[in-house]
Amino acid sequence: MSQYSLDVRWSCLRRYVGLRINLFRAMYDVRFHLADDQSVIATRCGDYALTACIDFDQAFSYYYVRDCSWYRSDLNRMSDDDVPDHIRDELLRQFLSLLG
Q1: pLDDT at residue 94 in the model
Q2: N or C: the chain end with fewer CB closer than 10 Å?
Q3: DSSP-assigned states of every residue in 19-59
């Protein structure tokens, strides 16, 4: 019988889900990479990255954050604790400049 992990970690990134994001600002800021279809935005610092899946709300006509994640350069998803504090703070500072 296989055993499933019930270890669900709360991420500090969950608080940003649902917030409005300014994609226009991201398009012209060299710190951010935007997917061609505007569905994902990423910012990087060293070997770590913060990515956000973006969606468009038809009723209110704005883009918002659907999901956020931390990644390492080998494309492995990481938890908050796996990202060094100074890197996490820098990536969040960059990301917060787009929210509002």
Answers
A1: 96
A2: N
A3: -BB-HHHHHT-TTEEE-TTSSEEEEEETTEEEEEEEEEETT
Q: Of 35, 33, 38, 42, which is closest to residue 62 (Cα–Cα)?
A: 38
Q: How far apart are CA 44 and CA 34, in angstroms?
A: 12
Query: 67: helix, coil or strand?
Result: strand
Q: Is the CB of residue 16 less than 8 Å from the CB of residue 99?
A: yes
Reduce the DSSP state of residue 80 to 3 states and report it. helix
Q: Which helix (H) or strand (E) holds 62?
A: strand 62-72
With bands split at pLDDT 50, 70 and 90, how would you rate the model's confidence at 2?
very low
- CA dist 71 and 86 (Å) reads 15
